[in-house]
Amino acid sequence: MKHVFFLDGQEIPFIPGQNVLEAAIAAGKNQQIPYFCFHPALGSLGACRQCAVKMYAHDSKHPPRITMACLLPASDGLQLVTLEDDVHTEHREIIELLMTNHPLDCPVCDEGGQCHLQDMTVQTGHSVRHYSGPKRTYRNQDLGPLVYQEMNRCITCYRCVRFYQDAAQGEDFGVFGSRNRVSFGRLEDGPLESPFSGNLVEVCPTGVFTDKVFRHDYVRVWDLQQGPSVCPHCAVGCNTTPGARLGTLRRIRNRIRPEINGHFLCDRGRYAFPYVTANSRPLQPRLMGETTRQDAVLRQLASRLEEGRSGFLGSPREDLQSNLGLFALADCLHAPFAAVTSSWAEALAQQCLALPQAPSLQEVAAADRIVVIGDLDSIAPMAGFAVRQALRQGARLTVLASSRTELAQKGDYRPLRPSALRDQVAQLADDPCLQGGRFPVLLATAETLGPSGLYALRKTLEKLPANARAGAFVNRPNLFGAAYFAADGHTERLQQALRQRKINHLLCLGADPLGEDWGAGTWRTLAPGLDGLTLLDMVDSETARSAEALIPVAAFPERAGLFVNYEGRIQAFSPVYRREALVLHSAVQGSGFPEAAGGLKHPIGPPPPLFWLGRLAEMLHLHEAWQKRLDFYLHFLCPERPDPEGPGVLLPDTIRARFEIAAVPATRTVTPEQWELDIFRWYGGETLADTADELHSLAPARGLRVHPDVQAVAATLHGPCGDLQLPVIACAEMVQGVIAIDQEGFAELGLYPGDPVEVSWEQRQ
Amino acid sequence: MRVWRNISELGAGLWTTLRQLGRTSTVSYPEEPLNLPPRWRGRPVLTRDPDGDERCVACQLCSAVCPTRCIELQAGERPDTRRYPLTFRINFSRCIYCGLCEEACPTLAIQLLDEFAFSKEHHADFIYEKEALLIDGTGKHPHYNFYRHSGVALQDKDKGEGINEKTPVNVRSNLP
């Protein structure tokens, strides 16, 4: 049965449980009802008194009355009116009241052009301020490098504090003061601690919280080129809207995708984009360290490939087509190809792929029994956000980790060493933490759990009720796409070929085998056997610096592509802008009448990887075969191309099933006396994100995190590929006997999370 | 009668002509300067506020309203968060001197003053950069200073020191 109520005589359909304002906005009738404090994801509050409607009672006994649309549950046949004078007066007077102390800031306010307050003021027709007295002012707080506060502009809608405290469950932001001195901020100056603080910018309906990174390179939103894109910083694949102007990327905003990120985005997704504009980003092809022309580097590379002694290395950091393009080229040349840099990472990818259909974040938010394994917030913050939404609904959360993370403080925390995680996961099926639930969900950070742990997770899932779901997260956007065509043992075969001198050249795409990728220690020992290494990448890395030839590629917002997220959802992103240079004098030679304001724009950006691979295939006279293979693989993985504006396409289960037969991963035994390694990450840490200065300024110090029982200032770790000396950071949250280091550290040692390690402590002097 | 009327009308016309004898309304421009009306719309310039600082706050309303898209600018930020145009470019071979930018400008920075005839050899020379646009004066509005009215704090103006502002509230007070 269709439910409708009437707004100014027009039928508005609604779903039972919705309020009048929600239904009116969904029906596109928000022009009639102005509002402030209501937010689709944060709900109603009734604080601003702006969304007044006049309700006519069903019977004739009660007179019509004015009420707030956001607090009025929609019911069948409800008669509501906004076109009467008293409703208009209410709207106009409330907005005048809210605007009493609003400063004359619009020309210098970053919210201008996307300001809800501006829109509503214009909509209600309030144009002249009757109040001429002095205005209230506030002192601003310094909220760190990401969010800029200008407290004078506040209209006390409480959206910020409802987001920060209720939705994101952050603890360092709140409301202070009384009567008309109410202020929103931290207790004292300092960076906001929540990994979701950037959402304050979008949630705030006026300019109190604005984007501090965008502020330094500001343009009005009406001048931005925007388009649908997908976040490349972790496996969740949140939908984003990058905004660019004059050939540079200026900001990232959330794009609403109910299945994944809803209305919000984490700070890594929002503030990691400056990798695109970083000074260190390679933009010109480099050959032996010298800048050169496109064709020179291509000729060199083609002659290398013609020798027939090349290996190919793809990357979970690159998109699906580029990886398939590289794989197709390797296939045409009968050369070895690997998608990940170590056998451990390969086993990890296979176990991730073998998991049955993972829950979408929307489903996670609806779960009532949740087990989180590892530090989920630092790998995939939006998954942690979905867990918080489930907690608000009363879900029971259990966290298995080697340190007491922020999420662990919100649920039952079981401190466990990484090696104990696997056994614990294997026994979860009978554990009380999952009993009695309607919809249990298990979320793991793949690296902490390791291949054998993920295998145990899959076995546990088989014992749980059929509706139980599990998801594994990594901080690479396309692990699930890159590894599909990589055969069993592909990394080992590639490394073996290098050891046996069958190959002497490596063509890498977006990988960093000599820097911080998994297994980099092994690659470093193999590097002397390499005659040359060619890298296609968009960031500067250890590998880029030592590569024989470096080929720059377009960044993700500059090209089209596909990412496969943790649930096997193939999502397309489209090019948003082109890098361009201003050519003032081309106006003279051109049509005689200059284009746009300041002359012509000349595109200068590097082309996408597929362009380079296509040109390479042409030079090797393989183009037709290459194109045919590429099309075939692409058609196999996604028969229907997803629409960038749409929700994406899920991988068919038949393709997933390929990995269920993957070999059972070997398990390591660790004795209780041995020190164990775990990975330490923070929410903003990721290869691309590390070049974003503002976000990176919040990064915690590099070091070796252990329980404060250890009285040492520094320590040297001994691994099979080298030693690593790091300062000791005492961390009360850590489990005893566990050492947490970053991924670079693992790469240097040649070890993996959960491995035992030899340590020599340096005592205090 | 008809003859008399024709002669009188002829005479009236002749008188109108004769009346203009001795008057000169033609100006031998460019030798002689023109007396332009006060609302004349000549070439747009960027003016300074009474304190001598540039008025433009790079709000981009002029470039938004411009019907020929001849204005292009990029905002910059000083250490004290004061906004200014990092680059400001007007392409005068597109400009139609409609004055909409002047109407849109909330800080009275862009003003159409009296320069109206200028010629160049190349179209590219008509692209005026900020240095060529910014003048050392207040233009038609000698007293207005946007930042005195705005609520933001600057190096020489703290919160509450603007026009019509109260001193900043003490959010930690719980007095009624």
From TrEMBL, chain B:
Cellular component, GO annotation: plasma membrane
EC number: 7.1.1.-
Cofactors that this protein relies on: [4Fe-4S] cluster
Keyword Cell membrane recorded: yes
Domain of life: Bacteria
A UniProt-annotated Pfam family: Fer4_7
Localization of this protein: Cell membrane
Protein name as annotated: NADH-quinone oxidoreductase subunit I
